Automatic annotation (TrEMBL):
Protein name: Tetratricopeptide repeat protein
TPR repeat ranges, renumbered to this chain: 236-269
Organism annotation: Gemmobacter denitrificans
Taxonomy, superkingdom: Bacteria
Span of the signal peptide: 1-18
Cited Gene3D superfamilies: Tetratricopeptide repeat domain
UniProtKB keywords: Signal, TPR repeat
PROSITE patterns xref list: PROKAR_LIPOPROTEIN, TPR
Amino acid sequence: MRHPVILALCLGGMAALAGCGRGTSDAEVQRALKDVNVIDESNLSDIMLTVGDPNEAVTYFSNTLAQNPGRPDLQRGLAKSLVRAGKPQEAAKVWAALVQSGNGTNEDRVGLADAHIRSNNWSEAEAELNRIPPTFETYERYRLEAMVADSRKNWKKADSFYEIAAGLTTKPANVLNNWGFSKLTRGDHAGAERLFTEALTHDPTMFTAKNNLVLARGAQRKYDLPVVDMSQKERAELLYTLGLAAVKQGDVNVGRNLLREAVETHPQHFEAAANSLAALEA
């Protein structure tokens, strides 16, 4: 007997809610829906910029920007996606348009400078960095400043910028590796060795730093492998690098032995090392 009463109460509640709904204007409903869409779009944009396929991200941001022209966040997303997709020249055009529109930030100018560097347009990158006030101090800004100084062979300024950049990040392995490579190209092999070693203390898995470290040691005729974590395959590849470095230094017999060890160490057939060894033995 109580069921009809409960049903009546439920129906009454639904009618009351329906009555409240009538007081809500269509404009308010549209605003609410728009807020939800913005949140969903923001989440999708974040996904596209991190885990999404770069080319799919370019398509997404291009289409969304066509529907919402002039939106800075979409322009920014498109530029970043173009960089990820290996199209820095196109990214530079998008970032330049954003900066020139007056809606860009100093961070966007840094992004534009980065795109110019990736496009090998060093003068444009330097000009863009010069437009950023010195009070804007970020890791990315000083990393690029260091690279530009390197391209100008302004070693003192490059060292200063690399040091600042390394101090502005909790993950300095990449910038320390870049700094070490800069030292290596200048002929400061001991300084390069120190920086590559420091980079590996922050990221023991960085094979590029391991390979560069072996190059720096080989240039000093240090033909033993450094004490760093390495797999069997990595060991073979580092022995190969060291062997070539020895040959370049004129220590042919040492190089031959290192190449032979590289071939024997590699878990599969190491064609590059085998060919180099065959050429030496011939």
